[in-house]
Hints:
This protein is mainly alpha-helical. 66% of the residues lie in helices and 4% in strands.
Amino acid sequence: MVYGQIFHQHSPDDCFINVNVGGFKQRMEHEVLKRFPQTRLGRLLCCSSKEAILELCDDFSPSDMEYYFDRNPLFFCYVLNFYLTGKIHLMDGLCVVSFCQEIEYWGIKERHLDFCCSNKFHELMELAEDKCWDQRSDELQLHSMDSFSEELSSLEEDIEMFEGLWCSDVRRNLWLRFENPGYSTSAKVMAVASLSVVIISIVAMCINSMPDFHPVGLNEKEIENPVLNFFESFCVLYFSAEFILRLVAAPSAKKFLCSPLNIIDLMSIMPFYVTIACDKMDEGESTELENVGKVVQILRLMRVFRILKLARHSAGLRSLGATLQHSSHEVGQLVLFLSVGISLFSVLIYFVEKESQESELQTVPIGWWWATISMTTVGYGDTFPVTLGGKLIGTLCIICGLLIVALPITNIFNKFSKFYQRQSHIDQRQSNNRALSR
């Protein structure tokens, strides 16, 4: 004998339970509730303790044998109709989200909706989902603006951190001129000079890769161009001096060294000094250092990181980096879709083209290369199908590539627009604040 049945023995009629929903009282038969044992009221009949009863209702009076529920009393009329007819109807004036919450509370499933309300329910749910999507987009924009405010606050905190530091006035003025080109005329000159040196370094690096600019030594081996070496050394020394001055002027050395842009600056100058060290070690002709030449070549190639120094002077590049950082999910989906498509079409083109002697698509790895340049719509033309079936597969591959690439691009572009607008606001606000602080 269960707990509810023990209490019901004291009532005149143990075939009913008393339900009080927001002041609306109703007596309900056990047999009616047993028709739907998975509902909240049906589960009340199987409770074996008062604690179990209170898990299903808000309060319980053993003396009156009355169950209390703090829910919408108007909607409970529809619940009563459900127990009698087995069908639930939409309530006029109640939003579809609240309706879903109510039927979920009472343990009623959506499949119990009557056919007259089913279509309307699904239409309202679609509208509610669209509104929720718009609301999440607005919240994302507000979150972006909050991050914008936090970043501005961080910049203002950096200026306040100079208080009480050694040579605070000198370091603050130097820091402002390095960090904000719009602070003064001298700051603009420093920014233009830094940008010019970056461009000169990139141009020198590109020219250095051309054999025509490398003179031949006495042993008929190419040697470094002294003019290019001069520009290389000058640019690295300038970057080094700039980095050291900014580090000395920074209010917090730890925060300065953890900044992504400053890490890029450090990576752009370190290969030069490591290369010099390796060259010095290589002069000893030690057998343990026979691969130092290859290491030096790799380190020299790392000078390409200087291109990323342009991000310090470009809001667009900084916005691009933030977009890629916050679009990892979309980029991952794009890579996954392309990988599946490339694997599929490379195998298909191989089986279609392998019998043709004129075709170059005789292996699956070559099919990977063809599928990659086709799905990304590059189309170098070095490998192409020659059979009718191969051309049909190629057409389908290009169309699928267009669709796959276009799917996540919209979300990535929208994020880039928001980050670019945010970065422009930060730069403008930063210029205004620092102009007022002079």
